[in-house]
Amino acid sequence: MELTKAKWFMIALLLLAILAGCSTADEEAVAEKEQAAEKKVAAVEESDEEAAAPAEKEESDIPEAAIHNVEEMVKEKGKYVPNEMTDQQKEELNEELEAAPAGMTGEEAYSLAVTLLAADVEEAATIINEVDPVIKIDSATPEDEIDIPDTETVNVAILLDASGSMAGEVSGGQKMELAKSAIEKYASDLPEGANIMLRVYGHEGTGTDADKAMSCASNEVVYDLGAYDEQQFAESLDQFNPAGWTPLAGAIEAAETDLKEHKGDNVRNVVYVVSDGIETCDGDPVAAAASLNESDIQAEVNIIGFDVDNEGQKQLEAVAKAGNGQYKSVYSESELNEYLEQEYSRLYWEWLAWGNDRKLDILSQSNDIYGELLAANNDVSFLSLASKNEMYAIHYDLKELGKFKDQEAVDRYLELIDTRYETVRQHFRQESERKDEIRKEVYEKLREQVDQLEEEKMDDYKS
Question: What is the pTM of this model?
Answer without folding.
Answer: 0.51
